Amino acid sequence: MTDLNAAAVRDQLGLDGTYAPWTDALAAAHPAPPPADVPRGAELTALLRAVGVPEREDAELTAALAELTAAGSPYAWLLDRAVAALAAAMGSVGDDRGGPGSGPALPAALGAAGRWFHAAVFLAAVPEVRAYHARHDVPDDVSWATLADLGNKVGVHRRLHGEGGMGNQRWMTLPYGGILYRLGRLQFNLDRDPDAGHGLEVHIPEGGPLDPRACEESYARAAEFFPRRFGTFLKSAPGGELRLNCASWLLDPQLGDYLPADSNIMRFQRRFTLDPRERARVPEPDEHGLAVPDRGIVEFVFRRVVRTPADVAALPARTTLERAVVAHIAGGGHWGAPRGSFMLPVPG
After folding, report:
1. Are residues 298 and 316 in the same domain?
2. Rounded to 5 degrees, what are φ and ψ at 99?
C-alpha cells in the first residue's frame, strides 16, 4: 500500500480545501507518529465510565473507534497525528494549546466515525494527560473529575443534535492539555492575559446550582492548588494574590433586570469587577438577528440550537432564568459575555 499523505487523506475522506491547513500542519509536525493507543473491550468500557461518557453511547462509539483505528486508513492517519500533536503541546497556554491536535469538525457525511473522531483523539490521549497530572502532583480525584468533562461534552452533543458524538474539541484542549482543572463546583485554567499578566480563567460547568458556598470553596481550593503546582507560570507566591478572570453571559449586568438580587447567579456576578469598556460594549447581531452571546446563553440554558429570534421565542421557558433569556431577546435586546476579574489571596 502506498503511504498516505495529507492530500490523499483529504481526497479519501472527501475533505475540501478548508481542511488543508490542519492536515498539512499535522503532516509537517508529526510525519511518523506512533499508532494511537485506544483501549478495547472491558478496558475501554472502564475508561468511558471514568471520563463520564454515558453507557448509551458505548455501542456506536465502540464501532466508530474500530473504524477510526483501522491500520492504514485515512482516519488512523489523522488520529495518530492528532494525538501526537496534543501530547506535544501538553501544558501549552494560549493560542498554542493543543497544537493542531483539535482541528475542525469532520463533515457530517462521514457519519458516526466523523462525529466521534475528536472523542477518539482525547480518549487516546488519556495516558499522556494522566502522566502529566502525576508529574505535577495532581490528586487522582481532581485528575478524573477534570477528564470527565469529555462525558459532559458528549452529553451536550446529544441534547443539541439528537445523536451521539462530541464537539467543542477546541475547548477540550484545556482539560486534556494539562491547563484546566475541576476543583469542586468550578473549573479553572491557566491564562495569559496580555493586559493583566498571568492568572486563572474561571469556568462554570453545568451540573447543579451555582451555590455561593460551593463557589467560595472552589476559589479556596484554586488558591492552594495552582500556586503549588504552577507557581512559576503564575508568578505567584504564598501570601500574594492571584488574578481570577471570567468571560461569560453570567456576568452580563442585564441579568439584574430579571433575576432577584439574592439569586445564585447575581451573587456569583458580584464577585467580579467588570472593566468599564466591557459594560459599554454592545453585541452586534448577525444577519439572522442574534448575537454570538445570544446563541451561547440559549445553548447553555436550553441545550437547543437556534437560528433566529423567532426560534428563541418558541422555546419552552419554565424557570426564571429561562423566561429572562427569552423575554430579553423577544424585547429586541441582546445578551453579552463581558469579562470580569477579582484578586484572590494566596495562603501564606
Report:
1. yes
2. 50, -145
What is the residue range of 111's domain?
A: 6-178
Is the distance from CB of 150 to CB of 53 less than 8 angstroms? yes
What sign does the CA torsion over 305, 181, 346, 261 have?
Answer: positive
How far apart, in whole angstroms, are the C-alpha atoms of residue 211 and residue 265?
A: 9
Number of C-beta neighbours around residue 232 at 10 A:
9
Q: What is the pLDDT of residue 291?
A: 94
User: Which domain CATH number covers 291?
Assistant: 3.40.630.120
For the entire predicted model, the pTM comes to 0.94
What angle in degrees, to the nearest 10, is found between the helix axes of 140-147 and 111-135?
Answer: 160
Largest CA distance in the chain: 67
Residues 77 and 194 in one domain: no
Tens digits of residue pLDDT in 229-286: 998 898 876 678 999 999 999 999 999 999 999 999 999 999 999 988 776 677 899 9
